[in-house]
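Friendly challenge for the regulars: who can give me the structure tokens for this chain first? No prize, just bragging rights.
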Amino acid sequence: MKRPIIAIDGPSGAGKGTVARTISEKLGYRHIDTGAMYRAVGWKANLERIALDDEPAVAELAARARIVVEGGVVSIDGHDITRAIRSPEIDRAAAAVARLPRVRQILVQRQRKEAEAGGVVMEGRDIGTVVFPDADLKIYLDASPEERARRRAVDPAHSGRTAGHAAVAEAIDARDWSDTTRTASPLTLASDAVRIDTTGLSIQEVVDRVMKIVTERL
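First reply, four minutes later:
Bragging rights claimed.
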């Protein structure tokens, strides 16, 4: 019997990454960070000096690139970019390439292929609505803009340094606007997703809530 697919969606700073990794470890499932794929494409486009709004060129790059997201390591064409893609510059690059319909089409196909056997916790912004609209369980993690900015501002794993709150809040606002207004697969709450507001909650509290839902429903 095919093992379940768990979709975890939500905006930047809502806690998707840490929660998805922890849940996958508890269940013995694979964890797939789809956002890292868009970051990888943005990083490679910058490396090759491809304009981020040049849809044909960026789509061609996405189609030919060998992207591996496994075990907390992200690589593209043999380059380990795990740390390099966690920066404000790549935040902006990822948001730009994620708005390109042809790029999304290519990466969504890859994501479906990666998870076709099930036993996966897949995180992103369109997993429960586009990539796997029939996912066995859909979780939508959210938090107040202030809370999400605070988390990112003190997260050196994301930016490589402690960033100013005002600058991070501005970047969060920009990413939210980009994600929710794009024509291709905008960030939205699936009608059958369980929404969890993580504002004021610890990671462990969020994980406990998600695991309770997993136990009840799966």
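The mean pLDDT is 94. The chain has one domain: 5-217. Your move, everyone else.
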